[in-house]
Predict the 3D structure of the following.
Amino acid sequence: MDRTLIDSAANALGIEAVFLRASAIRCREDFQPQFIEDHLSLVPQYRAGPTGRCHIFTSSHEATGETNKVAAFYFGVGVRLVDGESLAATETGEALPDDAAYLEIECEFCAQYRVAGAADDHELQPALEEFGRYNVGYHVWPYWREYLQGSCARMGIPAIPLPTYQIPPSLTASDPPS
């Protein structure tokens, strides 16, 4: 994690909005969510992380001649309820069977930031990439939590607990300490 790059991006960016871009909910064919209590061994598995996509958009207002820049970061999240017995078998090296997931909820969000000043896109790009890896998840997480809890309510199941956002270990494992 390069703190200097992150600080550079943070100084140039201001959060504007977080938008849902895509979502999918899938239930296993033989699973009725309202009977979830019959499946006491279901365990949630989570995934979250930046997609690696960041786009800078520029818009101009004809009346004022003002130009605005916006940076859009894309972030994917998901949870699935998996049969705990099947999950335990994977600890011994077995592959998780395709039918182990009873329910999957996944989304892609776009976090949109106003880019302050006349920052050069090419100079700012490395800072934006670092910011996208480490900071965007914190802005997306409340929207993901609300979407997940609302979806569970609409399906008639108890809310799936969502832990607080943590930088994924896959992002920090190869990074030198800063």
Notes: The longest helix spans residues 136-155. Confidence is low (pLDDT under 50) at residues 173-178. The beta strands are 13-27, 42-60, 67-83, 101-115. Residues 74 and 110 are 5 Å apart (CA to CA).
